[in-house]
């Protein structure tokens, strides 16, 4: 791609015109700024400002992503511990509680029922998760899905730039 850009400029086309032919790499704003720099004779200054802007943007984005690593790791460990509890610890307590002749509180009964379901029907939970991902990916591929997900990203201003839905 850089060879194509160089070739276009060597053939006498303007840098902005050559950049406009590669919209995947160069955003429209970037191309327009270069075009303005070319027409005003300030191309070097414009390129420096753009480079500084994108460098600062990349630094902020990098800091934000690295700051999100710790919560993500904590969530993963929490999910792992909850899974161990549901599959191994809670079934042992259920055996112990079954010997009592008393009615357990509703939250305890719900948790025990959830543990029993996940222990016996783990494959169903896994299958539902796969189906949900497939449905989400198909929804994401539609025009309405793209629009709805973009609306969600706008409503989540901090996470919308980091989360690539």
- Secondary-structure element series: HHHHHHHH
Report strand %.
under 5%
Radius of gyration, whole Å: 27 Å
Report on the biggest sheet: none
Query: If helices are DSSP runs of H or I spanning 4 or more residues, what is the number of helices?
Result: 8
Structural class based on helices, strands and sheet pairing? mainly alpha
Q: What is the CA–CA distance across the termini?
A: 27 Å
Work out the number of β strands: 0
Helix content percent band: over 70%
The rough form would be described as elongated
Mean pLDDT level: 87
Unreliable segments of 5+ consecutive residues:
none
Concise overview:
This protein is an all-alpha fold and 165 residues long. It is built from eight helices and no strands.
């Amino acid at each position: 791609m850089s060879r194509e850009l160089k070739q276009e400029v060597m053939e006498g086309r303007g840098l902005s015109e050559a950049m406009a032919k590669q919209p995947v790499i160069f955003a429209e704003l970037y191309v327009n700024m270069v075009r303005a720099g070319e027409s005003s004779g300030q191309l070097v200054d414009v390129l420096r400002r753009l480079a500084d802007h994108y460098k600062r943007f990349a630094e902020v984005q990098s800091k934000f992503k690295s700051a999100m690593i710790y919560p993500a790791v904590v969530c993963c460990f929490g999910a792992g511990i909850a899974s161990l509890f549901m599959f191994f610890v809670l079934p042992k307590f259920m055996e112990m509680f079954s010997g009592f002749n008393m009615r357990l509180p509703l939250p305890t009964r719900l948790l025990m029922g959830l543990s029993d379901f996940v222990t016996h029907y783990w494959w169903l939970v896994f299958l539902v998760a796969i189906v949900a991902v497939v449905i989400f990916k198909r929804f994401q591929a539609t025009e309405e899905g793209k629009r709805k997900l973009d609306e969600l990203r706008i409503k989540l201003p901090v996470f919308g730039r980091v989360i690539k839905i």
